[in-house]
Fold these 3 entries.
Entry 1:
Amino acid sequence: MEDILYVGINGEVLAIDVYHGKELWQTSLKSGFFGSKANEDVTLLVDRGVVFAGCHGNLFALDGESGKILWQNKLKGLGENDVSLAMERVIKNT
């Protein structure tokens, strides 16, 4: 997973091989009005093989290797604006 660059653009998430520039997969985040995705910003965050994508008032979790959408949260009642993402890792002593 560390040799993959994830790109979010126009309602799409792409995985790119960083050494060859080859597209590994592309996933459409059909979230807008009637599935529209043109000019939709996509915010990405990657953690433990999961790509979290915020787009048009929706939150998606994608499998980092295949691009398969694992789940979607429509963030109901919050509008259809850009979505900002942040995560703090808490390491537990065992």
Entry 2:
Amino acid sequence: MPVCRARHHRVLTRVAFAFTFDRSTRAASHHHEPAQPRPAWFTDDLQALADTATRFAERECLPHDARWRAQRRGDRDIWNKAGAAGLLCASIPEAHGGGGGHFGHEVAITQALALKMAGGFSNSVHSGIVAHYILRYGTEWQKQRWLPKMASGEIVSAIAMTEPGCGTDLQAVRTRAATDGDHYVINGAKTFITNGFHANLVCIVCRTGEAAGGKGLSLVMAEVDGLPGFRRGRLLDKVGQHTIDTCELFFEDMRVPRSHLLGTEEGQGFRQLMEQLPQERLIIAVGGIATLQRAIHETLAYVKQRQVFGQPLMQMQNTRFVLAECQTLATVARCFVDECVGRALRGELDNATSAMAKWWVSDTVGKVVDACLQLFGGYGYMNDYPIARLYADQRVGRIYGGSNEVMKELIARAMDKA
């Protein structure tokens, strides 16, 4: 399905022209990456979109990487530039301002940006997660109000789930939205919020009733610019992913119209989260595939030129065996994730399978990147080398989107019910 939003049509027409008539130029832009077999669902249209994302990363992200790492966030205008390039809300229907594509378009963008190690903004949260909560559960008024501006980059979105001391246990959420006439009065705190520093629109997981556990949860959208009672905390100093803004959010008697509730009734938040989390977890696995590919490529290039005891490091049996194991794991992971994406496109991806993809791929990424870094020796510990940054950036994959221990519990529960 082509991404054919009117304001992006000229961009993708040029991309399609380049793809058809200038394959050599397109290939040259990827000369440093090994060719990978394409699954059946990865069409020429998706390749053209991936090429657009690659060029965007090279032009708009990588030149600012060092500065963004130092300030622990990208510049706000990167969102507007990404919107103009057609990289935001690619899988949202044109009728709601999106690209008219499907989940495969998000995959193409996610993997292209991850392969380039391009940070500065978390599109997977904005386009792959928050936009789909609005699309799936929002009223027509809500969709028209928020989705077109999210697609253009005028609005940056975040989802506020995690609370201090709560972690992955969403049923323990304490943030409360009390009814006061036509408004909710929201009090609480959230932490580890990706896009939190720049967010104009926040999807808040909160309690709207007295029911315990997940039954009392709802999703409420808050337009936070200049909103009394809303406060951003400090930018968090993370181990990795230094260009992605992550911060704390605080709500103190913050008033939000009740018309901003997602869904037709209160208390549906936990069900909504459970329905959408499989796609979030698959997106994490999708990014992991690109990390595996980049780590192996960087390592292979290094060991071919590094001399040890008078010969290239690649000629030593240990090096060859380690890389053979890494390539095998990467290939198995890619095949599994490609199958999961195919299921998602057919509407067949279940919660347990997405949990398998999330935990196994993120765990495999950790093992492979660690093994690759070891082959660099002392240089692998230096942040001047991409492998060191990959090592730090990938670690959170086993934590966010639900810890890997929770993923295994979800899989075991599904087995119990079988």
Entry 3:
Amino acid sequence: MKNRRLIGILVAAAILLLIPFVAMQFTDEVKWTPIDFIVAGILLFGSGIACEFGLRSMRKFWQRIAICAVILIALVLVWAELAVGVFGTPFAGS
């Protein structure tokens, strides 16, 4: 069960990376560079592996939900900062 869940998480991350790649083939609105794909891959695969580690290490259901929620919130905040510079940090290139 544990390996199946990890494989599912990694496949989901790969499918999410395919969305902008396919969109780039049909429209000029999506313009990702190879660096964009690398950073997105690190964020998606890293957060997926972190969630898996949290699920394996925590025993109580509410702890598992809490750790995954914190990881996903951090992912969304970092992604939003990199995409549009929500917070205006130098991290986003502002």
